[in-house]
Amino acid sequence: MALPVSASHRTLLITLALSSLALGGPGAAAQGSPAPAAPAAAPATPATPSARVPGTTSQAVSAVAVDISAAARGQIVTCPAALKLSASAVCLYVKSGAQALRPLIRGRLAGRAAGEWKTTGKASTLLVTAKVGQPVNAFVLLSALADQESLIVVDAVQVRAAAPAPGVPAGVTRGQPYVLGSDLAGVVKVTSLGSGKFRLSVVDQPALTVTVGQRKAQTDQGNVELPLAPATDGRNLIFPVSGLRALGCTVTPAGKDMTVACGTESVGLKPIVF
Question: What CATH number matches the domain at 177-273, 3.30.457.10, 3.40.50.960, 3.40.50.2300, 3.30.420.40?
Fold first, then answer.
């Protein structure tokens, strides 16, 4: 349970400071002062109050907040929803100036601090870990309310998952040349039949029906065996260059490019090698 702030002017100072932070981001000044820019090294945007925070991250916030409170003799206050902090955030009111608190907090956290304070205007941020050697999982925001009054916020760093690197489509053979079905436009008509099946049509040649992941294909005259199985990236047909012969097409290399000729039509393209 958050303890009430004893003096009404303290509540007013916190309200004004937090309102500025909510409007201008960490580093915004209290009402009546020019609002500086947010710190360049501010941590990732905290989650909304309803966001779920992993248990280990909540423990990290608690551990850091307990240490800071013991060193700075902070008083727990309610974190306003306007700051959009996570459910594990801890806010402390301290009767000390920010200039004195920065080295005190940095020294208390010792090897758990990742780098130094990043300060802009009246706000400073410090990335920290629950234990030495762990990845960064929390941050400390220190905001000056007055000469000898400060607000300390400890919250979880919300790390966004990195986008997966483009992978090799399932079923392709590494080192072998492929072409996209769309690159064959003008010489081969490619029609998606759904369920991983495609029909490839060439003028004056039997249509070829292929299935992603299978070397066996079908024509009106029976089954044929492709040298390599076709694949897909979820949208395009990825067809092996060696399989174009099943359509009566010829392939002529031209440096890193090639020319595909089917009947009287031809197209120049660059093959894909995974």
Answer: 3.30.457.10
